[in-house]
């Protein structure tokens, strides 16, 4: 990772994501996946167990805003879309972020958004992020594979197009926008899940570790 701007205060990190990055009490309350029931089901019982808080702690940084919304896509003309101006503006509500970590695209894959539509939306999202936060380092992750759990699952998502196509689009958009890539998919490691997508405690730990590798922590 290139050097982060030196600050007299702690670095401020904001998160833009979907259900994988939610946690009750830290993300928009009407769109939380990791609520008290899911925390019990997954073992992700405290915010310290989330991938993003583990990364923030590794930086000895502080959380700005985590604007992660369960079920949200990058694409779509909705206030919940990751490219929506409203969500992007919210990332700075606790002060301008030094780093923005973007973990989005899984629902576009799962809900079969056409690749060309996803590409256009991702480009729009990055353009708006750069225009709104010109001094922030923006890091976008590709989409790693979740391991199918044994036994019955309580949530299913089943994209008909290979997830790797969406990761390739993310790589291309990141390069063109001249932001930073956290290429989690390249490690080809499946993280532990409760349903093939949403990480349990061990899965969160693996995702955090992959992010840290990419951030050179």
Automatic annotation (TrEMBL):
Work out whether the entry's keyword set contains Hydrolase. Answer: yes
SUPFAM superfamilies in the record: SGNH hydrolase
User: What InterPro entries does the database record attribute to this sequence?
Assistant: Ester_Hydrolysis_Enzymes, Lipase_GDSL_lke, SGNH_hydro_sf
Q: Give a single Pfam family match.
A: Lipase_GDSL_lke
**CDD domains, alphabetically?**
SGNH_hydrolase
Q: Which GO terms describe its molecular function?
A: phosphatidylcholine lysophospholipase activity
**Keywords, alphabetical:** Hydrolase
Name it.
SGNH/GDSL hydrolase family protein
Q: Source taxonomy lineage?
A: Bacteria, Bacillati, Bacillota, Clostridia, Lachnospirales
């Amino acid at each position: 990772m290139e050097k982060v701007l030196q600050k007299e205060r702690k670095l401020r990190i904001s998160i833009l994501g979907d259900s994988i990055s939610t946690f009750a009490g830290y993300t928009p309350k009407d769109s939380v996946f990791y609520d008290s029931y899911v925390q019990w089901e997954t073992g992700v019982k405290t915010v310290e167990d989330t991938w993003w808080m583990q990364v923030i702690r590794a930086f000895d940084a502080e959380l700005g805003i985590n604007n992660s919304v369960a079920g949200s896509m990058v694409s779509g003309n909705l206030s919940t879309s990751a490219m929506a101006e409203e969500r992007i503006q919210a990332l700075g509500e606790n002060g301008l972020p030094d780093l923005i970590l973007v973990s989005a695209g899984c629902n576009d894959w799962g809900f079969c958004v056409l690749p060309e539509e996803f590409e256009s939306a991702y480009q729009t999202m990055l353009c708006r992020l750069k225009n709104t936060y010109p001094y922030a380092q923006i890091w976008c992750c590709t989409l790693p594979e979740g391991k199918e759990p044994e036994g019955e699952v309580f949530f299913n998502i089943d994209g008909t197009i290979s997830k790797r196509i969406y990761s390739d689009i993310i790589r291309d958009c990141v390069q063109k926008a001249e932001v930073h890539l956290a290429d989690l998919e390249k490690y080809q490691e499946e993280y532990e899940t409760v349903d093939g997508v949403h990480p349990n405690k061990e899965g969160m730990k693996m995702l955090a570790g992959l992010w840290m590798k990419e951030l050179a922590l």
